[in-house]
Every structure is written in C-alpha cells, then in structure tokens.
Amino acid sequence: SRQCPGIKPLCLDLADWEATEAALGSAGPFELLVNNAAIAQLQPFLEVTRDALDRSLDVNFRAVLHVSQIVARQMIAQGVPGAIVNVSSQASQRALRDHAVYCSTKSALDMLSKVMAMELGPHKIRVNTVNPTVVMTDMGRINWSDPQKSAAMISRIPLGKFAEVDDVVNSILFLLSDKSAMTTGSSLMVDGGFLVS
C-alpha cells in the first residue's frame, strides 16, 4: 500500500467463506485478480492427516474458487473485460515426495483455471496460471532449507537455481496485461526448465 496508495489491503482468513464474501462484496470494482494464497504442509502419503488435507484444500483450492466467483461476478456486472491469474506450481504436473496433498491441490487448481477460462471467456475475462518451481519466499525457504534436499531439486533444473519472487511477479504482470490478450486457459511454467528435464 506504500508503493500504491490507492490499494486498500484486506486482512482475512480466506478459508472463512462468509468473512471473505462480506469483505470482497463491498470492495472493488475489480478488473484484475491474482490468487496467490497457498500453504504447503509436507507429509509422506501414508502420514497425511485430515487436518492437513482440509486446510490445504481450503486455502489452495476452495479459496481460489470462491474469491474468483465473487470477483468475476463483479466484473460481469460491470461489463468490463478482466484477467485472473492463479498461482499454481510445477508440482501440479510432477510428483514430489511428501507433497501428495500439495501436488493434488495444485493439479486441481490448474483444471479449475481451465474451466474458468472456458466459462468466463464469453464475458471477456481471461484466466491463466503461473506454475513456478520453488520460489525463495518465506515458505520456500522453510520447505527447502535442507541443503541435501535443495541440491537434489536444483540438479533437476536446467537453469540451476530456484526462482526469485520477481521471476514470478513479472510472469503474472505479463498475463494480466494486454500483451497476453489472446492467452487464456494456459499455464505459464516459471520452472527454470524443471519439467523438461
């Protein structure tokens, strides 16, 4: 909000549908949306807990669906074109050890984005995903701080490094902009080549 004084931050638990509906229902108007909230609770498949599954589904999938519904309805009511970018992951397309829930929620997000693109396209609303590799956020550092674990992943990335926040931000800005005016239902890989290795 310091960089863009016109932005009004809202702090809420996206898993709380009623609070989200109330907060976003009175916000707007919207032309752009980036769904970036996510959690990664890493557990081996045989040890996945119901709590981890429910929380991950709430944040990584249900919240995206709900927020997008609220914003898209407002865009349609205003009759203006819009763009939505959902932040997914390379993990939506490649199995990773201890990531059963995370990989699954991101795969679901990719397919949700395609359906959204198909249904919202006639309203001139584009929907895409960015699918980064590990990004050096706080969450990325927590889950990939073990040098042995991170070295194994980096060795599979042809560019030889994890992504920085700006790598993902620049891809999102492209998908929000008119420079991608004919792009919808697509997944933009920001993975340093991980999926081709």
TrEMBL record:
Q: Which InterPro entries match?
A: L-xylulose/Carbonyl_redctase, NAD(P)-bd_dom_sf, Sc_DH/Rdtase_CS, SDR_fam
Q: Which Gene Ontology BP annotations are present? A: glucose metabolic process; xylulose metabolic process
Instruction: Show the Gene3D superfamilies listed in the entry.
Output: NAD(P)-binding Rossmann-like Domain (3.40.50.720)
Q: Which keywords belong to this entry?
A: NADP, Oxidoreductase
Q: Which GO terms describe its molecular function?
A: carbonyl reductase (NADPH) activity; L-xylulose reductase (NADPH) activity
Q: Give any Pfam family that matches.
A: adh_short_C2
**Ranges annotated as spanning the membrane:** none
Q: How does it assemble?
A: Homotetramer.
Q: Into which family does the record put it?
A: Belongs to the short-chain dehydrogenases/reductases (SDR) family.
Protein name, as recorded: D-erythrulose reductase
